[in-house]
# Entry
Amino acid sequence: MTKKKNKNQYKKIPDGKKPSASNRKPTRKRFSSKSKILASALVIGLVIVIALCLWLPKAFSPKRSMTYLDQIQLSDLKELPQSTFEDTVQVEDMTIYGTSLVFYDRTFEPMETDGFFGRNVSLRNIKDGNTISSTFSGGADAGIDLQLLPEGVYEVYLSDGYKPKRAYTESATLEDTFVTMRDNDKVKKVQVASSPYYLDRYNIQTDKPYLYIAVTESDPLETVADVCIDPSTLAWPADEITFEDSIDGFSETQQAWALAEKIKANLESTGLKVIYSHQKVKEATYVGPESTIETGYRAQAKIFLSLSMYTQDYTRPFVLSSPFTNGRLGNEISVCLNQNGVELENISTLTQLNQGNGYDLFQPDENYNYTKLTNTAAIRESGGKVTSAGQAAGFEVNSQYSQAYGMNGVLFGFASTENAESRTYFLEHIDAIARGISEGILQYAHISTPIDLSRLSTQQAGSSQMAVQESETPVTEPAEHADPSLSAPVEEPIQEQPAIDGQ
# Structure
């Protein structure tokens, strides 16, 4: 059946005349369709913009690695963590030195008092609500002891008087993972982070980037060390201070290595990973690529133990610690040396330091005012951010470590170049000295496994014995001194140097 055509369908409208209703095109309907399409596009665009606003901050927030948080299921939580807090406090900076974590209310400056000094810090486990508390007592080694933290995810609170305040940062942060020292063949990986989306897996978004500490137990990596031993290293690439390496048959190089080998054997018998800062047959410095310092940083060592002779006319050995600490490691070594019958030179009268433990001296500027830099390169350059690594003249190449986690650096002066009695005393007590230093390190790190040389492999034991035999052979070739910072006798008591605020 043929459809009839509308006669007006193609009827021409004369010029100057308005079309009749029958000839007018359906423009209103077309305009209505366009409006709907435009409105729909605007709604879709608005939804996309809102979605992007919600998604972008989360997408560009720091991506954390897998931690213990990923093992905690929603059903494991005793109660849901809060998303907002009435009492809060902003954290501006943090340091890790040895195994100690400290937060600051301002950008860290070694010589300035921080507002968090003396405050209690509480860590609340989000899984069970249990709380661990400690106090920031001034030194970089006297904060939260990461070695002691059990596995868990912790909210951070800082007390203002008796009121704990939830700690947060200005923006989302994710710090480098820190690995604790080995204990019972295990380590703990510690990650400090802040983000509003940290608890996103529980559908919790907080109103601020609150601080969390995640502690995850793990198997140790072979490339990560616990202790770096530094036997008798040159302080500069070209050291003008020289002396005969063999003094009356006593070789600093060989005796330093003999002591190092004994300490290494003791510590490795407990399961610790111990490395040397340099090879025995190769000269090494504290400056630049492939330096002793880089060896320690690269291996993420927590302790840097330097062994050196000294030029002061002392009859007994001593320990030197960083003045930016409370001297905890040096104090533990001092106690354990005394317990092993080793006498120490009393180089400080500060009550917080045990006998035989003293603080490194500060460098003066051209106006004889003390700076924030200390003399001993082994201590200063190994401490990262805390000790201003890479900021001393001639050591600028180490500035790559100026913001790094610091190794707890101590120097053990084992004998004097000027005093024959000190050298005799060392030779007679080398085994007790090695054991005392080793036990002090274990006490500092709360390592539960005792020293037992029978645990060492045949290869390790053989290496240790070989080092002892080598140390008994005098060497007469000249060598440069280990550390010019110890070249001048101490004429003034160490405790008379300017005290650091908060210590």
